[in-house]
Structures are given as structure tokens and as C-alpha cells.
Write a structure and sequence with these properties.
DUF2267_sf; Globin-like; mainly alpha; globular; DUF2267 domain-containing protein; DUF2267
């Protein structure tokens, strides 16, 4: 069997995503964009049961999928979706002084993600997730 294109192109696709996220957020480096994207993904993940998180992960390109599930403490209890400001502060608190995510971080990552995936498929999955998931990924 041949290697599926999504895996052969994984690094190039991720590079495009992270550059897009960097530029959308007005950040200086891809390292800053990586921290922002990881923080947004983890903030979202904290609000999902494992089965819902896996539904979402299957929409993501391979590298983002790996980031989404990496270092997951599955014993940590889920937390409810809250207001955008509170979740943004959670994003900004990730890695403390090494995080320069702007107040628009969630929307910026959402916009870049939507350009990197099949939006219709993403929206179908988000509608199956708990209330708040659709709004979280609104660009």
C-alpha cells in the first residue's frame, strides 16, 4: 500500500498552517505561533470527553492531530466551555512567560485551522460535540 498523501505532506502542510497562524495573529516567529496553537488546542481538549476529542482529532491534519493528543492526562477532569475571554486567558497562561498569544489567539488559530482542513467536515464534527464547541472554533 502506498503512503497516504496526508502523511507524505504532513510537514509541509504543518509549515503552511503555522506560518498562516503566525501571520494571522501578527506574531514574530513560528515558535510563538506553535505555542499559541498548542495552547488553543489544549484549551479546547480540556473541554471534551475522550470520545469527542477523538472525533475532533480525526478532522485534523497529522501533525496537528499529534499536537492535540500529546501529553494528555486522560485522568484530568473536563471543564465546561466558558466565555471567550476566560478561555483566551487560559490560552495565554499556557507556558507562562514563553507565551505571547494575543487576545485574538483562539480566533486566529481557528481561522488558520479552517484554511488547513475540510471546513464542511470540521463543522459536521463540531456540531456533534458539546455546546460551545462550534463557538470556540468560530474565526
Amino acid at each position: 500500500m502506498t503512503n497516504p498523501m496526508q502523511y507524505r505532506q504532513a510537514s509541509a502542510d504543518f509549515d503552511r498552517f503555522i506560518l498562516d497562524a503566525r501571520d494571522t495573529a501578527g506574531l514574530q516567529t513560528t515558535n510563538q505561533a506553535y505555542t499559541m496553537a498548542e495552547a488553543v488546542l489544549r484549551t479546547f481538549r480540556r473541554r471534551l470527553e475522550i470520545s469527542d476529542a477523538l472525533l475532533f482529532a480525526n478532522v485534523l491534519p497529522p501533525v496537528l492531530r499529534a499536537i492535540f493528543v500529546a501529553d494528555w492526562d486522560i485522568e484530568e477532569p473536563t471543564v465546561p466551555f466558558s466565555g471567550r475571554l476566560a478561555m483566551t486567558r487560559e490560552v495565554q497562561a499556557f507556558r507562562g512567560n514563553h507565551n505571547v498569544s494575543p487576545d485574538s489567539a483562539i480566533a486566529d488559530v481557528a481561522a488558520a485551522l479552517r484554511r488547513a482542513v475540510d471546513e464542511a467536515r470540521l463543522d459536521r464534527v463540531l456540531r456533534r460535540l458539546p455546546q460551545g464547541a462550534v463557538d470556540f472554533w468560530r474565526a
